[in-house]
Design brief:
The complex is a heterotrimer of chains A (about 900), B (about 80) and C (about 375). With about 80 residues, chain B is of the alpha+beta class. Helices cover about 20% and strands about 30% of the residues of chain B. Chain C is of the alpha+beta class and about 375 residues long. Helices cover about 45% and strands about 15% of the residues of chain C. In chain C, the strands form 4 sheets. Chain C has a 4-stranded antiparallel sheet with strand order 10-11-3-12. In chain C, strands 5-6-8-7 form a 4-stranded antiparallel sheet. A two-stranded antiparallel sheet of chain C has the order 1-2. Classes of the chains: A alpha+beta (about 900), B alpha+beta (about 80), C alpha+beta (about 375).
Chain lengths: ~900, ~80, ~375
């Protein structure tokens, strides 16, 4: 690592002298290459400007393509032109200084006052900008006086100055030419320039008017050779060609003593070309175009925006040692691991230093070479030279292996146990990049434990993920300690697990642990063996309950009690005697009562069990628990099975009749409301119109009807149906989804209102105009099971479409908000005294979060779990 | 007409003007200069209500979540 | 060792007493428990260098993708629309001059808060009523060049306003000839142009009859045994002046207004409260500490500053960081003119120049020359 550190960067403006000084060649001809294809001297691709062809050497520095950074040239402008980016600045200066004595238009007292304020404000940039703004305003004010509009220094009468966008300045009715302006700016003293916001050391006001134009090196505007052999120049080169041509014509005309009018026209044209060379999106200036009509991308466009230099190349950089492929699930890899396909492992390498301890092993790897899996691709000699290990020259491999000694570095293949960073876009939070251990596997996808899907927000419908290999020991250690998956189980966002059971692992746990699940000893042995769980089990036990099997995974001193997801919220809780498995009791590591479900270890929710394991027993325990429970449940499900079918949402006739009755009743109520409205009997709610009142009441009635229908359906949907298990345990879906399948979909809505748009005063042509009834305004009384009528189907699609549009808009909006939040807050960090400060040392908080507690380590936002500590001490007695 | 006293509002924590020595201590504890303190305007209704002047430092005692009681400081500016 | 914060101390005392009730604790047990709590507290403290800003930004921004976008919804009171979800969060973070749906929650003083009649009376005083609100129609009669205001009988009764009052108020607007005909008032502004008549109609429509300007509605609701007034529109200063209004609890959702009336600390608390409530309503769980940090950052300068180009990001010390955020060229040109110096102590700047960032493990500046060790 280099010990040289850039401490600061000072900005400034290039003076004409500086431009000439750094220039290696004065460009005079607009031509690029001659007929033989050689660059023309003093042309826009003069060989002294750098090299863009491999094999050639730079005429200035002697370095080759890729090494030579390029060198600036310059163009002498026949007449000065305005730097477009400073057009407004120039206007401010012109307004602020006298045209006669060139002093700033403030009297001596004011100058003294503002100089002092400026000096004081220098510590904080914001303050300084405010003072500068005031000075600009104050110095320009005398010009606007109708009386006494004279310079406080020389007493000259001040003319009005007008600025016409983009680059014209008028004094009264006279046009000020850039030459006039430049002459004026030159005479401003350094002290006055400072008041106007200049740092005269690096930016004299007259430098805002260009007399010499730097020509960027060819390395930043390389020409590309097309397939036909013809060269195609960069947009910047095109623009420079324009500038040189006009510049030449202007000079010739001036020299020939052409009429003033022609000179001025050409001057204007030169101004236009220089303006668009800097920025091709200036308002009021027609953008310069390529022959094909395409708008040219010039300097400002290269820097600006998402695809600009700053955001695309400087804030975000491309990296080596990375891989990307499709992900697929594998419950047999640990949450800490990632399955890396062999071809990837053979391409990505880790530099390993040869020591006495590793020499033999690394020699062996070199011998195996790059085309066998545990192998190596390069060796790096102590002098820093890299040598590729050949794939098909065994002899050479042997010599290389012999040569290997302490001080060498071998770039060996990725192998099991290496630390890599794994990432899925969009990287919305820090859990989107985590450190995994490598497990090299056959085939071509990254393999991922299902429990880590939630933090990445990954699924397996074709998602791809990225993998990065930290190259130094320092980076690897840092990744392992700070970024390892098991260290991230608790989210810093809310202090609850983000990594945990998903979908079938939740419903599976319920099936395993609910009352009545039993296994024979043989089944238990098979299950544990196949799940790869190494636990001692008593040999004399022949019949096992699921709860007993589950208890094998728990630490022996674990004590938890909680109400789980399937708890029926009875008015008086019978706690330990709950007849529905709704109250979980774990005592001394034994699950005694209640079933394990979403409440225990489902990711992204309040989960009592996993939370406790991680916080009280450490992340290792948490990881082991998740690894083993997922494997175990896989085998439980292999034996007990879980599936969904149409019968899950089939209700018996009795239920259907009752639902029909409820819905009919609801529709009748709506009709009565509509009648009341038409007869003028409806009482408006306070502060609302009659129509609003009616709509609201109808919505209420229909919502109530749907809810009632749902309740009826729920009564008939028992726990023997798998989809009900899924909904109730929190594995996937909820009861509302199920009742929509079984009973009734309910009211469709767009923007929170019933559907009414489409045709004139009606939603669809199937209804009468202004019809207010339930079915005409998007009430879907069918269930998914029964099937939707054509009109209902259409209404349903309307509601669905709103959802889609919403999602699209939301992603864009929240993405921008996230970027802004990030940009505003990224420099805040906790100091050693636990204050939060920004990068200038400004204190934001005197104690982080007022109590200094890290949310990721807190107990549901609370600093310390006092109950648990007291409990521990009381038990100890 | 009722007089509005912002200091009694439940959103407003207690503001206390620090003595000069206390300010020095504070700056020393955190090893900072005055310009690194968070700011409060002299025109702030609470500052006016307690009659503090620019240049002084107010100690703000926030009660409630999640630390129970936390102290912060603001420098009064014009 | 950091001492325990007040909340932990209080909870510990309380729980120790409760535990002692159940089973007597020995002094050494209590000491051990306190020691353990102290150690545990010091274990869960943040590590120095932790990029808490980044974590906070992510924690607030990430759930944004899960929020609803439907602007209007009904919260608290069914009749008043409030902006919710992502648009509301953006609104707070942007520190707009006026929220799109300003709402006040007016609490009442002792003697008023349980009396429905008195509460209603306060509500009526708050609710701003213009001619337009109370009229069934305001029609320009172009033929006779006069204005016909037809009043709504029910609304008049509801608001307890008499026609005479209205005429009196209208006279103040412009003393023109007025004739009353039942529930209609005919205003004759004399010989004026159509344009003038239109303008006159506008002024008549917007004539304030009573209450507070810009407050469209005030509704009362019973909450936890007391009457609370919710208003559409917000004007704290005027409401505070009213008799019976509890000036210690009445609030608004307009953070800027809170800043103006109650000061910067109240604004900070309001930001926290508003963001927290919006997130909670969406069922999203975010630690308060993150929101507190955001609010503290927004209020460090003594007035609430927006997040973004016109606020915190635009005032950053680093030129490169500003250029990388938005309006790239302007910042660079300005920096050139003023000869600004970027001291490269933030995150973006160091990423740009390819140096380790000064947060997290990058906080440490200790370097070992590896060559010389071997």
């Amino acid at each position: 690592m280099s010990l040289k550190v850039i401490k600061e960067i000072k900005f400034g403006i290039l003076s004409p002298d500086a431009i000439r000084k750094m220039s290696v060649v004065k460009i005079v001809t607009a031509d690029t290459y001659d007929d033989e294809g050689y660059p023309i001297e003093k042309g826009l691709v003069d060989p002294r400007l750098g090299v863009i062809d491999p094999g050639l050497k730079c005429r200035t520095c002697g370095m080759r393509f890729g090494e030579c950074p390029g060198h600036f040239g310059h163009i002498e402008l026949a007449r000065p032109v305005i730097h477009m980016g400073y057009a407004k600045e120039i206007y401010k200066v012109l307004k602020g200084v006298c045209h006669n004595c060139y002093r700033v238009l403030l009297d001596n007292d004011e100058i003294k006052k503002y100089s002092k304020r400026l000096k004081e404000a220098k510590v904080r940039d914001v303050e300084k900008q405010k003072v500068l703004k005031i000075i600009a305003k104050q110095s320009a004010r005398r010009r606007r006086y109708t009386k006494n509009n004279i310079c406080p220094h020389c007493g000259a009468e001040l003319p009005r100055i007008r600025f016409e966008k983009p680059t014209t300045y008028m004094e009264n009715t006279e046009k000020l030419s850039p030459s006039d302006i430049r002459a004026r700016l030159e005479k401003i003293s350094n002290e006055d320039a400072e008041l106007l916001g200049f740092d005269p050391e690096v930016a004299r006001p007259e430098w805002l008017i260009l007399t010499a134009l730097p020509v960027a090196p060819v390395t930043v505007r390389p020409s590309i050779t097309l397939e036909s052999g013809a060269r195609s120049e960069d947009d910047m080169t095109h623009k420079l060609v324009d500038i040189i041509r006009i510049n030449q014509r202007l000079r010739e005309n001036i020299d020939a003593g052409a009429p003033q009018l022609i000179v001025e026209d050409l001057w204007e044209l030169l101004q236009y070309h220089v303006t668009t060379y800097f920025d091709n999106e200036v308002s009021g200036v027609p953008p310069a175009r390529h022959r094909s009509g395409r708008v040219l991308k010039t300097l400002a466009q290269r820097l600006k925006g998402k695809e600009g230099r700053f955001r695309n190349n400087l804030s975000g950089k491309r990296v080596d040692f990375s891989a990307r492929t499709v992900i697929s699930p594998d419950p047999n890899v640990s949450i800490n691991e990632v399955g890396v396909p062999t071809p990837v492992a053979m391409e990505l390498t880790i530099p390993e230093r040869v020591t006495y301890k590793t020499r033999d092993e690394l020699r062996n790897l070199v011998l195996r070479g790059p085309s066998q899996h545990p192998g190596a691709n390069y060796i790096i000699r102590p002098d820093g030279r890299r040598k590729r290990i050949p794939a098909n020259d065994e002899e050479l491999r042997k010599t290389l292996a012999e040569e290997l000694d302490v001080g060498y570095v071998v770039e060996r293949h990725l192998r099991n146990g290496d630390v890599v960073l794994f990432n899925r876009q969009p990287s919305l939070h820090r859990l989107s990049i985590m450190a995994h251990e490598v497990r090299v596997m056959p085939y071509r996808t990254f393999r991922l434990n299902l429990c880590v899907c939630p933090p990445y927000n990954a699924d397996f419908d074709g998602d791809e993920m990225n993998l990065h290999v930290p190259q130094t020991e320092e980076a690897q250690a840092e990744a392992l300690i700070l970024m390892r998956v098991q260290e991230q189980i608790i989210s810093p966002r809310y202090g609850e697990p983000v990594i945990g059971g998903v979908q079938d692992y939740v419903s599976g746990a319920y099936i395993l642990t609910r009352d009545g699940t039993e296994f024979t000893k043989r089944e238990v042995e098979e299950m544990l063996c196949m799940a790869g769980l190494d636990v001692d089990i008593p040999q004399d036990k022949n019949l096992w309950t699921g709860k007993e099997i589950f208890s094998l995974l728990l630490p022996p001193d674990l004590n938890v009690e909680y109400k789980n997801k399937i708890c029926r919220r009875c008015t008086t809780c019978r706690e330990k005697d709950c007849p529905y498995d709704g109250y979980v009791v774990i005592k001394d590591g034994k699950l005694l009562k209640g079933a394990i479900d979403g409440m225990a270890y489902k990711a992204r929710s309040e989960c009592k069990l996993l939370d406790k394991l991680v916080k009280d027993y450490g992340t290792d325990t948490g990881r082991k628990f998740l690894d083993s429970i997922t494997r175990l449940i896989l085998w439980v499900l292999g034996m007990k099975g879980i599936t969904v079918d149409m019968n899950d949402v089939e209700l018996d006739q009795d239920a259907k009749d009752r639902i029909e009755e409820v819905l009919l009743d609801g529709e009748n109520k709506v009709d009565r409301l509509i009648d009341a409205y038409h007869n003028g009997e409806l009482e408006p709610l306070p502060g609302q119109s009659l129509e609003e009142t009616l709509e609201k009441k109808i919505m209420q009635v229909l919502a109530a009807a749907r809810d009632r229908a749902g309740q009826i359906a729920e009564e008939y949907l028992g726990m023997e149906r798998f989809s009900v298990i899924m909904a109730k345990t929190g594995a996937k879906g909820n009861m509302l989804d199920l009742t929509q399948m079984a009973a009734c979909l309910g009211q469709m809505s767009v923007r929170g209102e019933r559907l009414h748009r489409g045709y004139n005063n009606r939603s669809l042509s199937h209804f009468k105009e202004n019809e207010l009834s339930a079915r005409a305004r998007g009430f879907v009384r069918s269930s998914y099971n029964k099937g939707l009528s054509p009109t209902e189907f259409f209404f349903h699609s309307m509601g669905g479409r709103e959802g889609l549009v919403d999602t699209a808009v939301r992603t864009a909006q929240s993405g921008y908000m996230q970027r802004r939040l990030m940009n505003a807050m990224q420099d805040l960090k906790v100091e050693y005294d636990r204050t939060v400060r920004d990068n200038t040392g400004l204190v934001i908080q005197f104690m982080y979060g007022e109590d200094g507690v890290d949310p990721a380590r807190s107990d549901y936002g609370k600093a310390v779990d006092i109950d648990w500590i007291i409990h521990k001490h009381m038990e100890a007695v | 007409m009722k007089k509005i006293d912002p200091t009694h509002h439940e959103l407003v924590p207690e503001h206390v003007v620090l003595e000069e020595e206390e300010v020095e201590d504070l700056l020393q504890i955190y090893n900072i200069t005055r310009d690194k303190l968070p700011l409060i305007k002299a025109a702030d209704p609470v500052v006016k209500a307690i009659g503090a002047r620019p240049g002084q430092v107010v100690k703000i005692i926030r009660r409630g979540s999640p630390a129970g009681e936390a102290v912060t400081y603001r420098l009064i500016i014009k | 060792m950091e001492p325990l914060p007040l909340s932990v101390r209080e909870e510990l005392t309380e729980k120790l007493l409760a535990a002692n009730e159940k089973r007597n604790l020995t002094i050494s047990q209590i000491d051990a428990i306190i020691q353990d709590v102290l150690e545990e507290y010091n274990r869960v403290l943040v590590d120095p260098g932790e990029p808490v800003g980044t974590v906070a930004a992510q924690s607030i921004g990430e759930p944004g993708t899960q929020m609803t976008l439907s602007t209007f919804h009904y919260a608290g009171v069914a009749e008043i629309n409030v902006t919710l979800g992502l648009p509301r969060i953006i609104e707070i973070v942007d520190m707009r001059r006026k929220p799109s749906t300003p709402v006040m929650t007016v609490f009442l003083e002792e003697g008023y808060k349980t009396d429905r009649e008195k509460a209603l009376r306060v509500a009526r005083l708050i609710e701003g009523t213009t001619v337009e609100n109370i009229a069934r129609s305001v029609v320009m009669d172009v033929i006779n060049m006069n204005l016909v205001v037809t009043l709504d009988e029910y609304k008049l009764d509801d608001q307890k306003i008499s026609i005479d009052d209205i005429i009196k108020k209208l006279k103040k607007v412009k003393n023109v000839e007025m004739t009353q005909d039942g529930f209609s008032i005919i205003l004759n502004p004399g010989d004026v142009s159509l344009m003038k008549l239109r303008k006159f109609a506008m002024r008549v429509r917007n004539t304030q009859l009573k209450g507070i300007k810009k407050i469209k509605r005030a509704l009362i609701r019973k909450e936890d045994g007391e009457y609370v007034i919710y208003t559409e529109g917000s004007k704290l200063t005027d409401v505070f002046k009213l008799e019976g209004v509890d000036t210690t609890r009445t609030t608004t959702n307009d953070v800027r207004e809170i800043h103006k009336v109650l000061g910067i600390e109240a604004a900070r608390n309001a930001i926290i409260k508003e963001i927290k409530e919006t997130l909670d309503e969406q069922g999203l769980d975010v630690e308060v500490r993150h929101i507190m940090l955001l609010a503290d950052l927004m209020t460090v300068d003594g007035e609430p500053k927006p997040i973004g180009r016109h606020g915190i990001s635009g005032e950053k010390s680093s030129i490169l960081a500003r250029a990388a955020f938005e309006v790239t060229t302007r910042h660079l040109l300005e920096a050139g003119k003023q000869g600004m110096v970027d001291s490269l102590n933030g995150v973006t700047e160091n990423v740009i120049i390819g140096q380790p960032i000064p947060v997290g493990t990058g906080t440490v500046e200790l370097v070992m020359k590896s060559r010389e060790v071997t």
